Model the fold of this input.
Amino acid sequence: MTVDPAVTPRARFVVMYDEPSDIDAFERHYNEVHIPLAKQYPGLRRYTRSHEPAAVIGEPCYLVVMLDWDDLPALEAALGSEIGRRTAEDAAANLARYTTFRGMILRLDEV
Done:
């Protein structure tokens, strides 16, 4: 993962995790396995996360993760890559044992 401060990301993948049934097991797997996988996404510019974000509208969640790319085609290519498939399989097979989660793809527009 390389970060070029001159490049403004234009696409973001956001994942929101509900509170895990076993926080220690979730965190251990997330930190030791899932993050290292996700950081291998091709073209990934930035990986950020926020634990226990404050809900302003709607239900709170435990963790929000944001992954940024230069544009939507780069993000879509990364999700469809071999590492993208492995990361998705890991989430479905391992993280889903502890929590529910949802994701969305955002195109970032300057206003």
Notes: The mean pLDDT is 92. The radius of gyration is 14 Å. The beta strands are 11-17, 46-51, 63-69, 101-107. The domain at 11-51+68-107 is CATH 3.30.70.100 (Alpha-Beta Plaits).
